[in-house]
Amino acid sequence: MSSSPGPLQMKLPSTAAAPAGLTSVLGLRRLAIMLMVAVPIAALISIDSETRFATWLARSIIVGTGALVGFGLAESRPRRLPRWLGRWVFQLLAMALAVPFAAYAAYWITVGGAPEFMANPKRFVGFGQLTIAGIFFGAWVALGAMIRQRDARAHALSLAFERERRELERQAVEARTQLLRSQIQPHFLFNTLANIQALVETGSPHAPQVLASLIAYLKAAVPQLDETVSTVGREVELARAYLELMRMRMPDRLRFALDIDPSVLACRCPPTTLLTLVENAVRHGIDPAEDGGAIDVAVKRSGGDVLIRVEDTGVGPGVSGAGTGTGLKALRERLTMAFGDAAALRLFERPPHGFIAEVQFPAETG
Amino acid sequence: MTHPPTVLIADDEPVLREALARLLAELWPELRVVAQARNGREAIAMFEEHRPDVCFLDVQMPGLSGVEAARAIGHRAHLVFVTAFEQYAVEAFARGALDYLVKPVERDRLRETVERLRERLRTVQPPPAATDELIRELAARLSAAPRDTRLRWLRAGSGQATRLIPVEEIDFLRADEKYTLVGWRGDGARPGEALVRTPLKELAGQLDPEQFVQVHRSVIVNLGSVSHVTRGLNETATIHLKGRPETLPVSRAYAHLFRQM
Known about the structure:
CATH architecture of the largest domain in chain B: 3-Layer(aba) Sandwich
CATH topology of the largest domain in chain A: Heat Shock Protein 90
Structural class of chain B: alpha/beta
Strand order of the largest sheet of chain B: 2-1-3-4-5
Mean pLDDT of chain A: 81
CATH class of the largest domain in chain B: Alpha Beta
Radius of gyration of chain A: 37 Å
Structural class of chain A: alpha+beta
Strand content of chain A: 5-15%
CATH superfamily of the largest domain in chain B: Response regulator
Helix content of chain A: 55-70%
CATH class of the largest domain in chain A: Alpha Beta
Shape of chain A: rod-shaped
Number of strands of chain B: 15
Helix content of chain B: 25-40%
CATH superfamily of the largest domain in chain A: Histidine kinase-like ATPase, C-terminal domain
Distance between the termini of chain A: 14 Å
Oligomer: heterodimer
Number of domains of chain A: 2
Shape of chain B: elongated
Order of helices and strands of chain A: HHHHHHHEHEEHEEHEE
Strand content of chain B: 25-35%
Number of helices of chain A: 10
Distance between the termini of chain B: 77 Å
Largest sheet of chain A: 5 strands, mixed
Radius of gyration of chain B: 28 Å
């Protein structure tokens, strides 16, 4: 597939998690991990202590919970941080700040009132142990958790990219399918074949030339499925073949003229851009008009752009009803896919009656 | 039948008219082609002038179609419809037991048709009166199907040519005295604005109600262009649009539309 740089509008998951309630700040999984750390710490400290293991366990769990709350709250609050302060640093700081308070609270709860560290140096040592262990192990577990989270986010991101890529691919396939559908119109094909058969049967000298036009049209109009880029030159030949076929079919009603600047022929162009405009002019402009009309095709350079203009003197745009809508919409999508915002499709009503369509896109070759 | 049978051929494509005339001359030598019409209107006029026994009518013709011409001719002639491959038209003919040919016309198929017509003319069978009813139904079906009364584009004055704004590219419409201000996706999907001479009230009824919603006495918005809605005082709200700075007011009467959002 040849490259067609288009605007990639990625829908990425927002990097700051939404503010969460206390249940999700704590979370079952986090609580479990905290317990797995808190129990051995309590066991270690209690080995060399007069205080019972159960008390140490309670203190350890209270400190762990405090660390967890500090870590969890800093995860999404405040919503915005100064640029120089990374969210992960802020979370670690919040946790480290929460631990001494939690340790103090743990003592308050387990001794039933103010721990009075001045009077009880052993308690103060215990408080110190608890705080240091809390900060150290808390930071260790928290870093591990953040690495896992980052991996998960990267995974989600790559999934989002993948989804986006699939969506773009789907759009491309759809656009090509639409091409197929829009071109092989049985009505057009059988009517044209009926004409050719009649010309052949009467031995008309025009028959070979008309057949050549049909072959040229079919060759270009049956899309090679892997081809997403055509050239202006190819588009002009396709439009010419189509117009010649239609003039053979309605010689008294269709006149046309092509005014082509040869310097833009090599520029790349989404397939069937010009054909869509010319087909619209015939089908919705000339064909419904009893007296027909003229189609003027101009392809020229306008600054750094290619400007394609198709003007017809047919019945003009109806105010309502289906018809040209789908073809033009698909064309607009193809243009956006190929050129992004740099391409334009403009439609005008032509006084006194008729329709003008203009397509403009950057002149790029190769 | 004393006079030689006569036929009218109506087709907007001259090569096909001639081809059918030639084939008929070969398969039905005594048949006389009295008229060749290029559209439905001519077909009716020529029928009234020449009163042929048989009419071959192309279904797709500019102006009045073959089916519409058939409605005017009715059972005053034996009718044969000619159509290029078109599933639903062919089905309608087959179901209605109307005579029809599919392009490119096959010689054998035309021979059968010619034999049937000859038989009817020889036994002086008038064309069945029931045909009128069938054609009326057919015309209703063929013309009703593709017609859509919804607005397809707005006309905005710009220089000597009138710019056409496809409805699906409109972001919002805002009443501006007698005119309507249109916010839409102009060149290369850039936000643009245009003034349209039709008042908002008139446009409101012609837009797809699934897509366009009135949110204020003077504002209609394309739901696909809404980025988000913020709640205001007094049960009002403000609509923010995708990729453009303008905001639109939602008045109390319409605020319920966004309560779920």
